[in-house]
From TrEMBL:
Keywords: Membrane, Transmembrane, Transmembrane helix. PANTHER family: PROTEIN BAX (PTHR40572). Pfam families: Glucosaminidase (PF01832). The keyword Ligase does not apply. InterPro entries: Bax-like, MGlyc_endo_b_GlcNAc-like_dom. This is Glucosaminidase. The chain crosses the membrane at residues 7-28. The lineage of its organism: Bacteria, Pseudomonadati, Pseudomonadota, Gammaproteobacteria, Alteromonadales. GO terms for molecular function: amidase activity. Residues 106-237 form the Mannosyl-glycoprotein endo-beta-N-acetylglucosamidase-like domain. It comes from Alteromonas halophila.
Length: 246
């Protein structure tokens, strides 16, 4: 009897160990490389770009798969509204008040790539090449805020009366994915999406340089912010990454 109890106890312990391992595998926080270990300049930049470029490219591939689904669903005489509803919710398209055709147009405007060059320039700009406090502690490489108490990291220089925090992400890729979704659905970046749609209509490449003109509201610096991004893209020759963008 005692042997049987011991066997059951060992099985329970083993099960708990497996659960803990699974938890850490799926939920434990991941970190980007410590970019501060590289000398500031070409070496740090190379490490930064080589780490983030594949992440952005992979997410763009996923976005293009969603875009293809939309195009397929909308190509029918009667658009498949059921398959579009989930995407409409995710991308904040009010499918209830729009006609099926208008919903398709709105989704195609929003479900599209963010050029790798643009994402790299913004990540470098917002995170001080991955060395900022928020990048190191919260995997936040794009300066994204959140507005629920405890949702992130409280800025040390937050103005009196302000309640925002800087979002804390489980992994760097989560930060990139959140940034790209923000670009694709927030009203502030409608000018960027308009530029992108125009490029699509004219069968021209969607480049990071072109889309910087639609980002004046991303920063309090306004037009100066866009100019800074264009300078970073040109100086670091980041447009080369757009050649492989879908």
């Amino acid at each position: 009897m005692k042997t049987k109890k011991n066997t059951v106890l060992l099985a329970i312990v083993a099960f708990i160990v497996v659960l803990i391992a699974v938890w850490f595998s799926f939920f434990a926080k991941e970190s980007a490389p410590d970019f501060s270990q590289y000398p500031a300049g070409p070496e740090r930049k190379a490490a930064f770009f080589s780490y983030f470029a594949p992440i952005v490219s992979e997410l763009n591939t996923e976005i293009m798969e969603k875009r293809q689904q939309i195009q397929t669903a909308c190509s029918k005489d009667s658009p498949d509204t059921a398959s579009l509803k989930k995407l409409a919710t995710a991308y904040r398209v009010d499918g209830e008040s729009l006609s099926p055709a208008a919903t398709c147009d709105a989704l195609l405007d929003r479900v599209d790539i963010v050029p790798v060059s643009l994402a790299l320039a913004q990540a470098a700009n917002e995170s001080a090449w991955g060395t900022s406090r928020f990048a190191r502690q919260g995997n936040n490489f794009f300066g994204q805020w959140c507005f629920k108490k405890g949702c992130g990291i409280v800025p040390s220089s937050r103005d009196t009366g302000k309640t925002h925090e800087v979002a804390d992400f489980r992994a760097p890729s989560d930060s990139v994915e959140s940034y790209m979704l923000n670009i694709n659905r927030h009203d502030a970046y409608a000018p960027l999406r308009d530029i992108r749609s125009s490029l699509r209509d004219e069968d021209k490449p969607v480049s990071g340089l072109a889309l910087t003109w639609g980002l004046n509201k991303y920063s309090e610096r306004g037009e100066e912010y866009g100019e800074e991004l264009r300078s970073m893209i040109n100086y670091n020759e980041l447009s080369q990454y757009d050649e492989t963008t879908p």
